[in-house]
Amino acid sequence: MTLSGKTIILGVTGSIAAYKAAELASRLVQREANVNTIMTEAAMRFISPLTFRSLTGRPVVTGMFDLNSEFSIEHVSLAEAADIVVIAPATANIIAKLASGLADDILCSTVLATKSSVLIAPAMNVNMYENRITQNNLSELKSRGFIVVGPDTGRLASGEAGPGRFAGISDITGSICQVLGRKGDLAHKHIVITAGGTQESIDPVRYISNRSSGKMGYALAEAARDRGAEVTLITAPSSLIKPYGVELYSINTAQEMYQAVRDIAPRAGALIMAAAVADYRPASVAKDKIKKANSSLTLNLVNTPDILDNVKGDFVRVGFAAESEHLVENARAKLQRKNLDLIIANDITAEGSGFGADNNEVVIIGRGDAKNKLPLLPKREVADKILDEVAALLP
Ligand code: C5P
């Protein structure tokens, strides 16, 4: 999601993870956000304000009484201008101060003065994190509407292992997008999306699959999340980073995808089948690894269930049609056969489009004569165009 026109306060506090906040600032700027950094005294022991000034192209606020600042009464004007305040990393100290409403530094004062959402990404030693006092403070903040991302579990700077690691940058940016999109046109709508190519086992180590990367389905999931939807992503194996803030079901086979869709979609507003579901699977799965014995091997394949055909319910149904010839005619026939509301036709012979690519060139076809031919676009933009049409069909 582009963050163009959004103003984000990035509060950096004194954790060893402070250096990772530089990467976060950079990612937010790449998405065109205005990033105003506030650093605590302790943060400046770990990383220089110059780093954030250079990355964000904006002055960095480092103290309460900075006469050279462009902000009038700083904490108030900063707080009012923010669409979201992100404290990353957040130490046990800032969490305690926020929980008790202290205002003895510029970051706490800004948080106290803001009406925007506040997101914190804790990062600290495992014992400090697990301490009842910190846990109570975090509960208090959550009950007051603060959003807490992480911490992750793993190796900590102290050499110990456990919860306390700074959350992944993509989780933090994902959460920011989700919070900023909360009141979008898909708010209170539940959308189920399938993604990736199913894997049909031959024996314990081999399977039949296809070239689907999952990129289109994952882009749809993120786009729907960023427009306020509650999203369930049913995914075949994929190397993509799991989108933050999305309910995820991992499946392998077409049969498992069918069961998941059948259980979940009837409660949803829309089902978007972006997955490349295998049409055939081996009739039986060999118990042991098949040995290289003969000069040829015949696999007996049987049909998998057609998910869209079989899952009934009163939800908007969207299918994909990957075609290599007669794109629109074949897609229209599929739309009718599967009783769909929309079908997204993509020509898999087009250069730089379709399976595995970052871009897609599609035609969105509705019932009747409606058809929307889009140029080659990044999958995220294609996702938003599809969701525009889904939103118009939702009750
Ligand atoms: O494979 P086919 O071209 O028929 O896929 C068209 C649409 O049907 C896609 O949206 C795909 O996800 C869905 N499909 C399905 N169940 C299958 C195969 C495909 O729902 N077994």
Unreliable stretches: none
Q: Pairing-aware structural class of the strands and helices?
A: alpha/beta
CATH topology of the largest domain: Rossmann fold
Largest sheet: 8 strands, mixed
Shape: globular
Give your account of this protein's structure.
With 395 residues, the protein is α/β, with parallel strands linked by helices. It folds into two domains: 7-180, Flavin prenyltransferase-like (Rossmann fold, 3-Layer(aba) Sandwich); 190-393, CoaB-like (Rossmann fold), CATH 3.40.50. It is built from 14 helices and 22 strands. It has helices at 18-30, 41-46, 49-56, 74-81, 92-99, 106-113, 126-130, 132-143, 169-180, 215-225, 254-264, 307-310, 327-337, 379-393, and strands at residues 7-12, 34-39, 60-61, 84-90, 117-122, 147-148, 152-155, 161-165, 190-195, 200-201, 207-208, 230-235, 247-250, 270-273, 280-282, 301-303, 316-323, 342-347, 359-360, 362-366, 371-373, 377-378. The strands form six sheets. The chain has an eight-stranded mixed sheet, with helices on both faces. A six-stranded parallel sheet has the order 3-2-1-4-5-6, with helices on both faces. The chain has a two-stranded antiparallel sheet with strand order 7-8. It is globular, with a radius of gyration of 25 Å. It starts with 6 loop residues before the first strand and ends with a helix. Cytidine-5'-monophosphate binds at residues 254, 273, 275, 277, 279, 304, 306-308, 319-321, 334.
Could you give the topology of this structure?
Blueprint: E1 7-12, H1 18-30, E2 34-39, H2 41-46, H3 49-56, E3 60-61, H4 74-81, E4 84-90, H5 92-99, H6 106-113, E5 117-122, H7 126-130, H8 132-143, E6 147-148, E7 152-155, E8 161-165, H9 169-180, E9 190-195, E10 200-201, E11 207-208, H10 215-225, E12 230-235, E13 247-250, H11 254-264, E14 270-273, E15 280-282, E16 301-303, H12 307-310, E17 316-323, H13 327-337, E18 342-347, E19 359-360, E20 362-366, E21 371-373, E22 377-378, H14 379-393
Parallel strand pairs: 1-2, 1-4, 2-3, 4-5, 5-6, 9-12, 9-14, 12-13, 14-17, 17-18
Antiparallel strand pairs: 7-8, 10-11, 15-16, 18-20, 19-22, 20-21
This protein binds cytidine-5'-monophosphate (C5P).
Cytidine-5'-monophosphate is lined by residues 254, 273, 275, 277, 279, 304, 306-308, 319-321, 334.
